[in-house]
Amino acid sequence: QVQLVESGGGLVQAGGSLRLSCAASGRTFNSAVMGWFRQAPGKEREFLAAIMVLMGSSGPTYYADSVKGRFTISRDSAKNTVFLQMNSLKPEDTAVYYCVVDQRKLRISPRPEEYEYWGRGTQVTVSS
C-alpha cells in the first residue's frame, strides 16, 4: 500500500523559510510525477510544483507562477523522498501542504484529479 507522509511544516515569520519533506513507502517510484499542492481555508487546492521522474532519474520541474523563484522542488531517489524548499514565505502561503504522486500518465499537470496518491498534509502558517 502506497503511503506519502509529509513533514517539515510549522509556524514561520514572513520572509522566513521552511523545507517540507514527503517520504513515500509501499512502492519505489522509478517513473512518476511527484509534486506538491496546497489548500488554504475556503479555497480550492492549488498546484505548486512537480518533478518528473524517469527510470529513476529526476527530470523536468514545473512551478506555479505564485511560487516560481521562491519554492524549489527536489528529490532524493535513495530515500524515495521529495522535498519542497520554501523561501521568502508570505502570509498568503499559509495553507495545508500536500505531497502527490502519479504514475499513470507521466505528465506534469496542475489539476489535482490527475494525481493518484496524496499525503495527509502538513500545516504551514506564515505570520506577518
Structure write-up:
By secondary structure, the protein is mainly beta. It is built from no helices and eleven strands. It has strands at 3-7, 10-13, 18-25, 32-39, 46-54, 57-63, 71-76, 81-86, 95-102, 117-118, 122-127. The strands form two sheets. Strands 2, 4, 5, 6, 9, 10 and 11 form a seven-stranded mixed sheet that branches. A four-stranded antiparallel sheet has the order 1-3-8-7, with no helix packed on it. The protein is globular, with a radius of gyration of 14 Å. The model has no long low-confidence stretch (mean pLDDT 95).
Give the topology.
Blueprint: E1 3-7, E2 10-13, E3 18-25, E4 32-39, E5 46-54, E6 57-63, E7 71-76, E8 81-86, E9 95-102, E10 117-118, E11 122-127
Parallel strand pairs: 2-11
Antiparallel strand pairs: 1-3, 3-8, 4-5, 4-9, 5-6, 7-8, 9-10, 9-11
Task: Give structural attributes.
128 residues; mainly beta; four-stranded antiparallel β-sheet; 11 strands; 0% helix; 54% strand; globular
Mean of all residue-level pLDDT scores? 95
Describe the largest sheet. Answer: 7 strands, mixed
Low-confidence stretches: none
What is the end-to-end distance?
Answer: 40 Å
> What oligomeric state do the depicted chains represent?
single chain
- Helicity level: under 10%
Count of strand segments: 11
What is the CA-based Rg, rounded?
Answer: 14 Å
The structural class is mainly beta
Based on Cα principal axes, name the global outline.
globular
Strand content: over 45%
- One letter per element, helices H and strands E, the order comes to EEEEEEEEEEE
Query: Helix count, per DSSP?
Result: 0
